[in-house]
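Q:
Just now I want nothing more than another pair of eyes on a protein record. Here is the record:
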Amino acid sequence: MGVAVRVVLDTNVLLSLFVFADSRYAPLRGRLDAGAWRALTDERCLHEFQRVLAYPMFSLDAAAQAAAFDAYSRQAETIAAVVDPVILPECKDPDDQKFLEVARDGGAQWLVTSDKALLKLAQRRKLAHLFGIVTPKRALEIGDARLAASA
């Protein structure tokens, strides 16, 4: 299979994959489950996912929250912060900065997000030398193109 693609998934993407089973992104979940992609996270991101799972608007009981959290956290690699990190641009939404930091510190190829503030940073291309910031759809397109090229 080769080396797994290292990715950071923001909380909205995690909800789509592990709570709502968004069929548009089923291949993304399949790549995670098969080990072709390796999700990177840290304690801050895990805490945010756990907190968001408990939002009343999702109507998830404790068992459903635990199942979604466990399904993700079992697959994800929890990384530590780098002592002497590369300086990152500041995201307009301070709550999203942690995803940039995990991508940097974990050596991710991509930060997969639907978040407008993060995607705006991608347009400025200030992080292109470190990792890509892509939508789930674009991550699948890139992944499909790489699979086709290696076949």
